[in-house]
Amino acid sequence: MNKKIFLDKNENPYKPSKNIIKELEKFDIESLRFFPEYSPQKLDEQMAKYLNIENDNIISVNGMYEAFACIINSYDKYKIFLQEPYRDLYIMIFSYYKMHYDIIKAREDYNISLKNNIKNKNSIIIASNPNAETGMFINIKEIEEFLKNYEGIYVIDESYINFAGESAVKLINEYKNLIIIRSIAHSHSISGLNINFIVSNSQNIENMSKLRQKYSVNKISETIMTAALQDEKTSYNNIFDIVLERERLDTILSKEGFIVIPSRANFLLIKHVNKESDYIYEELIKRNIFVKKYDKENILSDFLRVTISTNKINNILINTLKDILYNN
């Protein structure tokens, strides 16, 4: 196979909304002479509408780096905890900002642990739901029970929630210690813009908005994001197709001897009962297929993470895996 297939970054395989082109054609190019607004009001309002929240419950930020900077600097004396499994990106961000953190170990089934062993009020716990490495999902009732007994700040990265179902956004006004990071990069096929949203109660948002970068979202990005949000039909259809392919791939790989972690995201975490993941990974690379492999120190070191793609690409992956398993 000559063409490289990248299934390692969880990018959406489908084209973004055609509404983006329509809006860009109407874009006032003369406006580029001027700086963007300090706060991209149109985008914030559109995302607030999408999430069914008030405008003062949300701010848009320039990627996960700025999201973490706004949150952590709002509570700069707080101790930071990461719930395992955690994204590699979190470690990169903390290294960049020279922030110290401790780890809350995962459960035996690799899901995050919601046992409340952190009694320090001045603490921040960071998790992702669905989990950004396993795809496993914690339901809202479990999160709410945890929040009732935790007095620190709980940050949930919901980057993949559009593939999962119910969001914890509905809890932000009831639990003042809840902060959610949202994204439509994966669900709306616009990872190239690298824009995130912080969602919380209005007081938290007011405090964090004072810490974000000036002009952090440019005018063209705001136009594209707003246009994508306005076209719910395209994103819904793409999400629906990805979820169907996720379930199909899960079923097929399970029959071929793979252990497949139950996923509510746009990827699967897999390992074979007989073949080492390192071996499968290297054989896939030889065939120009790239998936995510974990370091030996990681609790997921025995697994490979595979992005859900189109039916055609997924079939290529399935046939290639069968070839590796049975013909090598």
UniProtKB/TrEMBL annotation:
Pfam families: Aminotran_1_2
Molecular function GO labels: pyridoxal phosphate binding; transaminase activity
Aminotransferase class I/classII large domain sequence ranges: 3-314
UniProtKB keywords: Aminotransferase, Pyridoxal phosphate, Transferase
Signal peptide: none
Obligatory cofactor(s): pyridoxal 5'-phosphate
InterPro entries registered for this protein in UniProt: Aminotransferase_I/II_large, PyrdxlP-dep_Trfase, PyrdxlP-dep_Trfase_major, PyrdxlP-dep_Trfase_small
Designated name of the protein: Histidinol-phosphate aminotransferase
Source species of the chain: Brachyspira hampsonii 30446
Organism taxonomic ancestry: Bacteria, Pseudomonadati, Spirochaetota, Spirochaetia, Brachyspirales
